[in-house]
Amino acid sequence: MVDIEHQMILRAAAEQRQGSDAVITDTQEPNLPRSLPRIFAALSNDGRLALIDELARAEAGPGPDELSISTLAVRAGLSRFAASRHLAILRTAGLVIATRVRQSTVHKLNWPALAQIEDWMYSVLDCEPPGS
Fold first, then answer.
1. Domains present along the chain, CATH in parentheses
2. Residue ranges of the alpha helices (H) in 1-106?
3. Contact, 8 vs 89, CB < 8 A?
4. d(CA 100, CA 54)
5. What does pTM read for this prediction?
6. What is the chain's Cα-based Rg?
7. Long-range contacts of 57-64 (CB under 8 A, 24+ apart)
8. Looking at per-residue confidence, does 101 or 80 come out higher?
9. How far apart are CA 10 and CA 2, in angstroms?
10. Most buried pick, 44, 80, 113, 114, via CB within 10 A?
11. How far apart are CA 53 and CA 62, in angstroms?
């Protein structure tokens, strides 16, 4: 697990070095069967789960839908460095989308990736999602 996490951090750092004023990550929906191990590896950390939770709360509540690293770090109870490192892993897994806005970077959830996880879970359980 540590090797996968280390590779994800290195890949995210390489993406950030390339720089861009547009979207930092690839927003394509992941090919679920191949990406499931990477997605679940990204979700296997309490800090990353806290970041996902805070992004979901931000999008569900009043106020901005996208949050900066500093805001996310405070809300999730993490240092800015830890939040940045965890967000890089979540971006690499396709769960979070980061966009440059002037001199800062804001983050939001990639809902299609999360919906694919849900779809996969229902297929494993061999049942229909509620409301289908």
1. 2-6+31-123 (1.10.10.10)
2. 2-18, 32-42, 46-60, 69-76, 80-92
3. yes
4. 19
5. 0.69
6. 15
7. 58/108, 59/108, 59/109, 64/106
8. 80
9. 12
10. 113
11. 15
pLDDT by residue (tens digit) across 3-25?
666 666 666 555 555 544 434 44
* DSSP secondary structure code for residue 23 in this structure: B
pLDDT in tens, 53-78: 999 999 887 777 789 999 999 999 99
Give the residue carrying structure tokens 């990736």.
113
* Alpha carbon distance 44, 8 (integer Å): 13
Q: How many CB atoms lie within 10 A of CB 74?
A: 15
Encode burial over 25-49: b for 16+ CB neighbours within 10 A, e otherwise. Answer: beeeebeeeebeebbebbbebebbe
CA distance 57 to 18: 31
Residue 83 CA to residue 75 CA, distance in Å, equals 10
pLDDT given for residue 20 in this prediction: 40
